[in-house]
Structure formats: structure tokens, C-alpha cells
Amino acid sequence: MKFVPLVWAALWRNRTESVLTLLALSVAFALFGTMIALNAAYERAIDDARMDRLIIACAFDCGAIPLGYREQLARVPHVTAVGGQLWLGGHEQDEQHPITVMFVDEGMRSAWPELPMSPADWRAFDANPSGIFLSREAAARRKVRTGDTVAVNTTFGSNRADGNPTWYFTVLGFMPDPPGWKSGAGTPAWNPDTIVGSLRYWENSAHLDERDIVNVMRVAVDRPEHAREVCREIEARFTNATPALYCVPARADAQEMADANINMRQISLGIGAAGLFMILFLCANGIAESVRERLPEFGVLKAMGYRDSHVALLVILEAAVPTLVAALIGVALAWEVDALIEHLALKGVIDMPEMRTSFAAFGWALAAALLIALVSAVAPLLRIRRMDVAAVITGR
Amino acid sequence: MSGLRQIVAVGLIGIGSLRERYATALVVVVGMACVVGVLTSMLSVTAGLARAYLRPEDAKRAMVWGGRNTFDQSRSLHPDAIGTILEAPGIARDPDGKPLADPEFLMRIPPVEGFVAGSLQLRGVGPAGIELRPAFRIVAGHMFRTGTRELVVGVGAAGKFGLNVGSEVRLRDGTWPIVGVFSCGADILESYLVGDAITVMSARRRAGFAQVIVQLVDAKAYPAFEAWLTGNPALSSVYVERKTDYDLRELGMNTLFFTRMAFVIGAIMALGALFGVVKIMSAAVRARTREIGTLRAIGFGATPVALSVLVEAALLGASGAFIGAAVAWLIFDGREMWVWGAFKLRVSPSLWVLGLVWALVTSLLGGLYPALRAARLAPFEALRAE
Predict the structure, then answer these.
(1) Strand partners, B177
(2) What is the value of pTM for the model shown?
(3) What's the rounded Cα separation, in Å, for the pair B371 and B10?
(4) Which pLDDT score, from 0 to 100, does residue A347 have?
């Protein structure tokens, strides 16, 4: 405790420059914290995707899978559930307001239990097949309430049996925003909001020749280690079928998706490292300058009997305090930067995982701050150790 | 002594004393190098993709789509409509008098082991498709023969997916051999397999093109070309756009977020560096207080003193910018990358200039407060400073 007044006085020796250093370090740590959150978001998106969930799509350029495949897929060993998924795209008021409804069938209750819908929600579909559930974000954007009607105008003619180009849905309720990837607001033909409808509505109302098909099937397997084997079996069984099928575990799909796009995990690490490099130089310069200007003061302390370890502690504390404080401020600021980057992603046309600055980011930032303070203090400490106390005190 | 000579003289004194203050000067240089290095590295992705998508020859080109399905994988342009489209006015013709226009499509094929669906795509092109791409060259093997089940692979896709002459690709009706490897002047086409459109279409058992790519006689022919097509009752639903608009749309889809993020990160880093510059230059002014006092006492004006501080900040910032851009160029320029297509990163001359401007603005803003402080130093007080 006896060092506290000394450290405090040293830190405020030049108030303006100390504040500027703190600001510069805080901004650099904000960047570091953001990059940690960005990296973690991409890692988490892959971790969240489960190996025991399989995604089944058309192997070739067809876009639709017969619903009849459901029973055949269910008979493949280790498959525990099969569900179908179909997208209906269109627009609301005008073409500038695209909307996409994702129809799911009952099988998804078991094949895709991660879809955040409760048993009561599924029962509501039974009672009202033309109902939809919106994610909270989707509902907030449209300002809709339970019981409201949402109209989807199909852009390229009608696909309804009655020839009406508009599909009407009743809002049954809301669901949490699904975790994982968020999609960009994107193109005029695609809207990423999560809006879930019942496949029964499509089956009852679509053109006869457009019924009994889905875009994607999801399959649950009993154990993750069976995923690859089941995929191989499915692809083999459907090789000569029309259409043939392609199967990939959801986790492998997420990994490959991340690799196929701009590798944000690598980029975030590179930018974070550049931020730390800036912090290191700023911190090292600050502490070196402070020690250089206060050599007589350290000489007096040593003459008074302060041991080298005490002086070292003083210097390390002087380097560590602003760096640690800046780390805390910076990572707190990173929350805001995360929101800005997410906003940019959603305004742009990119799918990206949800960013959250976690306590781990604080841990990483504090650890980095401490390490940088220690490294920064090395050269000044060597200088103090080598100094001639008498010469420094007498000004020689 | 004139104002300009005073500025030069004070500036030289300041720069001369940098040797004694090299450690602090290094902080500005390294900080700015980090800022510019990160900015130019990130934007090299955008510049590389821009080179892949924006082709100079596209200024005289148009795309005709089947309605608003303006994506390459669409199949909404019926083959029956092609003949009518090729009769439109303003289409350039080859020496044989055939229209320079090619109905094409892009098709997803089953993913190669270890890659996500949609990574590898096949472009169906007609005879005019190669004429429309003057940079197209077969670099190994031979060109696919029209009417046969043969494919050629672009150098980008070949490298990414490990495909070569003799490799086979599974399509709906069996395996198709790759008979050649092509380059196309860093065009995005190098990321695809290419085959004869009609043969591929029959294999996939679904008729329909995505678009017709048209070479116009000149860019001014576009309005009449568009009006003729959109007003033609024989064509129930076509959408026409300039190829350059399509290029920008495709480029925007791939780079909009990343480019914005590069600027946001560059701005955050610049803000940190700006505080650093204020701090370092303030310390420099403090260290040079007596020197500045002496200069003021012998007749140097406040403006030359202030400008010398700004010049010093700008020089340090520019040095950092040069180092940052040079490091980014050494590491990233020409490096292959894949973002749903192969392209080479590019630290272009315009990025060097952008980095320099970015650093200069940051340094000058950062140097402003210390410069004003230096200018306001009263000579007699400065001479008394310890």
C-alpha cells in the first residue's frame, strides 16, 4: 500500500499526457475486444451447429426434394427423425420489402429441436395451419402483434391453387431470435428474418404440381459419431434417384461455410494482434519516458534503502495501472463497436454470427494488458538497475 | 527572413532533433504503420474482387434476364426467347455476321469432398461465350468440344479443388471428364468449370438460361436495345441491365460489409493513433520548449513554429503509412484467396494513396493541438523552462 501514493503521483505527473495515453490505449483495447468477440462469434457459430443433425439437399441443380423421401430417409439405420423445410419468397407492400416464410413440417419437432418453438407453438400450428411465428427481431421490424395478418405477394406469378398471387398468414406469436448465424438484409429477392409457417398450409393451398416437395430435409441421428456414416448411406441410397441427394452434418456445413467466405477468424486475429502491437509501443514509450525523466527520483529511493525489487514493483505498477484500466474501458467500449459491426453486416449483404462481448474478452484483455505492462517495464528496469545512484542524484 | 524560409529552417531543426527523440517518434511511425497496414490489407480483398468482377470490356455490354430473377443460377430465360433477343438492335457482330451474344447459366454441382455445396459451379456457355472473353486461354489440355460431355476448369477452381486435366466431375447423368485448364485474365470465370451450355442443359434435364450476355456496338446503343426488348410483345418478361450494373451488384454482395468494416476498423485504429500523436507531439513540444523559446526570441514567428510541429507529425505519419502499406503489399499483394470464387488480393496504387491520406489526416489532426501549444509559448516563459 505504501507504493500507492508514489504510483498515483507518477501517473498524474503530466495530467494531459496521461489522459491521452489512457484514451489511446482504451481505443486500441476496444478494437482488441471487438476482434476477440468477432473471432469468438465465428467459433461459436461452428460449435453451436450439431454433428448429429444432418442437412439433406438436392445433389444436382434441382432445388426441390419430393416429400416422399421422408419415409425412405427414416428407414436409414441410426436416423431418429426427419423433417422437411420449404421457403416461400415474396414481398410485402412493394418489392423493396422482401419477405421469406420458412414452412416446416411436424417432423422438425424432433429433427430440428433447436428451432426455438415450444410444444404450445406446434399445437397452435395444428389448430391454425395458416399461422406464422416471427422471431422478435422480425416482429419488431414489422410492428405486428398476435392476430395481425401478414400478406406475402409472390413476385413471379401465383403458386397458389386458387390463382391468387397473395398468401395471407395470421400471426400466432413470437419466438426468440434463433442463435447462431444472422443473415444480411440482402437482396431484393431475399429477406433473412426468421418467420416460420406450417408446411400443411402449403400442402393445402399450393398448385397441385408444386405440392409434396421441400427445399431441404433435416435429419437427426442417434449419435454424432454416426453422422458421417449415415450421410454416406443416404447419398449411396439416393445416387440413382431423381433427384439424387447430398448430405452434410450441420457442424461440417457451418465449418465449410465459414471457410468458403472471407475468413473472419483469421482476419480478426490479425487485426487484434496489430492492436496489441500499437498498445505495446504506446505503453513501452510511456513508461520509458517516465523513468528517463525521473531517474533522480529513483536514485533517491535507492539511496533511501528501497531494494531493486521495490523499485521494480513501482515501475511495473506504473506501467500496469493505466494499461489495465484501459483494458477494462476498452472492452466495455467494444460492446458498442460490436453492435456497430453487426449493424453494418445486417445492412450489408452478409451472413454473420451474432457477436457478444463476453467475460472471456475481459479476461483476455486483462491478461494481454498485464503481459504488455511487464514487457514494457523490462528496458526501463534494466536502466534503473544499471544507473550510478550517486551520479544520478548529484546530476553528473 | 521570409515566412517560408522560417518554416523550412524551424522544420529542419525539429527534424534534426528527431535523432534524440527517436523512441517517441517511433511510436507514431509504428502506430500509423499498424493503422495503414490493417486498412490496406483489408481493402486489398475489395480491390482484388473488384479486379475479378469489373472488366473494362463490360462498359459496352448488357445482360438480358428472364424477369427479375437476376441471379446466375436462375433458369427463367426460356430457350425459345433467345432468337428474339438476338434480333434486338445495337448488338455487335463478329466477322461472320453472327451476333456477339451468348445465352449462359451457372449451375451448382455436387460439392467436392471437404467443400460446402455451391463452392464449385459450372458455367454453361455457347460459342460466342469465348469470343466475349478475349482473355480466355487454354493453359493445359484442350478446349471442350461442342456437343460432347467434356468440361474445362478455370485455374482458380483447379487450384482450390485440386482438379486437373483427367479429373472427373459427377453430374446428373454420370461423370464428365475435365479436358482442359483455362485462364481468363483474373476474371471470376476462372473459379468455375465451363462446358457447352446446350449439352450441360440436356444433362441436367431442365431447359432455361439465366441470362444472355450481349456485346453492344457501343455504350450509347444501350437505351434503344433495352427499349426494344422491354417493349417487345413476343418477350413476355425480360429484364435488361448494363453489365457494369450487374458487376457492381455482384461485387457489392461480396464486399459491401467487408469494405465498410475495413473503414470502421481503420477509423477506430486511427482514433487510437490520433490520441497517440497528440501525446507524442505534446511531449516533443515540451522537450523542445527552450529551443522554441530561443527561436521565438531571435525573431521566428509563431506560425512557422506551429507549422514545423505539423510538418514533423505529417512526416512521421507518412513514414508509418509507407511502412504499413509496404508490409501489406509484401504479405498480401498477389496472394490467392477464395470468397465464393478465386481472386488475387491486390494492394493497388490507389490503396497506397488512401493509406497515405489516411495517415496524413490523422497525423495532422493529432499534431494540431501540440502545434497550437508551441505557437502560444511565450518566449520569455519558454526560455525559463527547465
Answers:
(1) B168
(2) 0.78
(3) 13
(4) 53
Contact B116 A259 (CB under 8 A): yes
CB–CB of A244 and B172 under 8 A?
yes
CA pair distance B338, B94, nearest whole angstrom: 35
| Minimum CA–CA partner of B73 in chain A | A61
B14-48: per-residue pLDDT in tens?
Answer: 777 777 778 888 889 999 999 999 999 999 988 99
Q: Is A187 touching B (CB cutoff 8 A)?
A: yes
Query: Which of B34, B206, B261 is opposite residue A61, by nearest beta carbon?
Result: B206
pLDDT tens per residue across span A241-293: 878 888 888 888 877 777 766 777 788 888 888 888 888 988 898 888 888 88
Q: How far is CA B200 from the centre of its chain?
A: 32
> Can you tell me the distance from the alpha carbon of B316 to that of B320, in angstroms, rounded to the nearest whole number?
6
Give the ipTM: 0.76
> Looking at CA atoms only, how far is residue A28 from chain B in angstroms?
6
For residue B39, the chain A residue with the least C-alpha distance is A271
How many residue contacts between A and B have a Cβ separation below 8 Å? 152
For A257, name the nearest residue in chain B, comparing CA atoms only: B116
Q: Give residue A181's Cα distance to chain centre.
A: 7
Residues of chain B with pLDDT under 50: none
Q: How far is residue B316's CA from residue B310's CA, in Å, rounded to a whole number?
A: 10
Which grid coordinates are listed for A240? 440413382
CB pair distance less than 8 Å for B283 and A349:
no
Query: Which residues have CB under 8 Å from A100's CB, separation 6+?
Result: A87, A88, A89, A90, A190, A191, A192, A193, A195
Q: What is the residue type of A344? A: L
CA geometry: angle B190, B194, B200, nearest 5 deg: 155
3 state SS of B202: helix
* Contact criterion met (CB < 8 Å) for A16 and B282: yes
| Confidence at residue A158, expressed as pLDDT on a 0 to 100 scale | 64
CB contact under 8 A, A23 and B42: no
Model pLDDT, residue B178: 95
The whole-angstrom separation of Cα A171 and Cα A287 is: 62
Contact: B279, A21; criterion CB under 8 Å: yes
- Please identify every stretch of chain A with a pLDDT value under 70, giving residue numbers as ranges: 1, 61-63, 95, 155-158, 177-192, 260-261, 345-353, 396
**Which residues from B are below 8 Å from A282, CB to CB?**
27, 31, 276, 279
pLDDT of residue A188: 41
For CA atoms B297, B298, B299, B303, the dihedral sign is negative
Q: Which residues of B331-359 are buried (b: 16+ CB within 10 A; e: fewer)?
A: ebbeeebbbbbbbbbbbbeebbebbbebb
Grid coordinates belonging to A89: 419468397
Distance (Å) of CA A86 to CA A198, A208, A216, B107: 10, 15, 7, 20
Task: At B77, list the grid cell.
Answer: 430465360
Give Cβ neighbours of residue B273 (< 8 Å, ≥ 6 apart).
A24, A278, B28, B31, B32, B34, B35, B362, B366
Long-range contacts of A272-276 (CB under 8 A, 24+ apart): A272/A31, A272/A32, A272/A35, A272/A36, A272/A39, A274/B34, A274/B37, A274/B38, A274/B269, A275/A28, A275/A29, A275/A31, A275/A32, A275/A35, A275/B34, A275/B269, A275/B272, A276/A28, A276/A32, A276/A368, A276/A372
- Mean pLDDT score across all residues of chain B: 87
Report pLDDT for B377: 82
- Report the pLDDT value the prediction gives residue B73, as an integer from 0 to 100: 77
- The torsion of the CA quartet A162, A164, A169, A170, rounded to 10 degrees, works out to -80
* Closest-approach residue (CA) in chain A for B74: A61
